[in-house]
Amino acid sequence: MNDLSASRDGDAERVATSPPMTAAEPDGAPRIAVLDILRGIAILGILFMNINDMGGSLYASFDDIRHFGWTTQDQIAWWLREVIANGTARCMLEMLFGAGMVILTDRAAQLAGTRVVMKRYYARNLLLFAFGVVHILVLLWPGDILHTYGLAALIAFLFRGLRPRLLLTIGLSAAALQFAGGTYGYVSTTQTQAQVAAIESAQRAGRPVTAADRTLLTKVAEGAARRAKTKAEDAARIAAEDKARTGSFMTWAAYQWSVIAYLQSRGLELVFVWEAAGVMLIGAALYRLGILQGGRSRVFYARMTLIAYGIAIPLRMIGAAEQMRFDTAPKTLWATAEVSRLAMTLGHVGAVHLLVGTILGARLLRPFAAAGRTALSLYVLQTIIGLWILFPPFALGLYGEFGWAALMGIALAINIGLLWLANAYLRTFSIAPVEWAWRSLLERRRLPWRKTRITPAMRTASA
Q: Which residue windows are transmembrane per the record (predicted)?
């Protein structure tokens, strides 16, 4: 367990300069065990975010979550998912991507100049982008994150040499702007609703309505009409998706491609890339400060966990309660969503480090290191199991059959199986299939699959 827990002794502000490493990959890339554990938790956790879009309408996830089922059990499952997990797996992966950027580029910079490092790192992530495109267009998963991370990494690299404070400042810009814009939207909507209520009260009292009042009422009515139109369009999309995904292979494939085209036409990719690049910079800063890899004291991680959860849990509970009202009232969630997502993720990171620092915790979390080392392959396998076995119009054809509670249970069962598979696989092989293809293309050679067997003769020669 020495490779799973860095020393937690010393001052809370101490930065680790030499994080504990495990054996290198076949291409020579080093491993840090606790980062693999975090990555394994994140990649398995992301299925809880994706399973509803695989087993039910993707459009319903954004429009009417009750479409999946809204029994008491479903409400509890959705609420727990929303408060504890929503967005945090993605956020943790983004942070770890930033840490990986530092590890890979710092290591390469020792052997070559900046231009060579940049060329190799860009090639690595353009290949990842290509894998993501295949994931979208061939495996038909509109929610792919690989292509987004591939693009975001190209941007994040340009800032990698900055000091941690500047990395954090730039990385937090998306959360700051979202907070500012959401706060403005919340305040302006609240004021408008108060003005409308005052005008309606004056009308009931028989007082005259001014021209400014009529202008405001017209503007509000037009906004309500637009929302009603959008609501009707969303309902039509949900119905069309349900029909297409329970039809034939061709109706399903055609509709998945149309969803991809629709999402891209909305300009959401720019938002996703900006978010991912920003959080990658936060991850790079946290790594340089020794936080992600376990280079701080237990007191530091205890404080970090308590403060992060103390911010995130109340904000997320309020946001979940607001969403469960299903009304048009202003929501604090508009302002706090990204802040609470970052805080909740940091709380999870701190909790993992606290657990890894104990004998029992290290034993419980050790299997997740294998999931972290096979993360790309597990991510693609989640898509194959969900989209191509459980929920397509062929194979098991279970689309639309389950509510939130059952979907979360299915995700848990799949993750248990994947966790076992990852550990069993790495007992024989040194690299997972998708990782092997990605790194072999980058290295322009076939990397070895199997672990090297140590024979008595090799031990004697080594001695």
A: 121-140, 146-162, 271-289, 301-321, 341-364, 376-396, 402-422
